[in-house]
Hints:
The chain is of the alpha/beta class. The chain has 8 helices and 6 strands; from the N terminus they run ααβααβααβαββαβ. About 40% of the residues lie in helices and about 15% in strands. Helix 4 packs across helix 6. The chain is globular, with a radius of gyration of 18 Å. The protein starts with a helix and ends with a strand. About 5% of the residues have low confidence.
Amino acid sequence: MNKLIPKLLALLYPPSRCPxxxxxxxxxxxxxxxxxxxxxxxxxxxxxxxSLFQYTEEVKGLLSAFKKNGSFVAGNEMATLIEEFLPKDLxxxxxxTYAPSSQVSIKRLGFDHGEVLxxxxxxxLNVPVYDLFLPPKVEQKHLEMDERxxxxxxxxxxxxxxxxxxxxxxxxxxxxxTTGATVKTCLALLEKGGVSCVYLTFCAR
Length: 205
């Protein structure tokens, strides 16, 4: 019986592990975090936004833990890294919104990873989060560059969702900057609705 107790406790209270290498630790282990920080980006991919890190193996592992395995520890670590390395010239924002996940992705995961990431960051910055966009049906990651632009053209904002935000400045969050199709389309829709916004992506390929 005594031998069963440790096993039962391990099931009820699993040890905290690094979401990338699975080392026993609270959150990211120091070696994994250090390797992510070595890939910090210092360039601006577009006039209206920033990407913070290169798409390295460690960043890929962190994204995979969050988006494929549903690790909320990984999502919180991403938000912590974003807060820690917010560009100095970002300026103040009144709210956070996020590029929408596809309907397929939300159904598979059971949550919208962009929403979770944004809410984690919003708590740290003490600003509200707004769900402004209707999710597309097809996932961008499975499409070629020209197909991404065609697919994202169907992106729409929720009816009247921008009305309370006119004249305010927001921060648009996305995880990966690949072609820029999603964030640029979201920014254009926000601008059309009278909302000023800049984007911040966790990493860039």
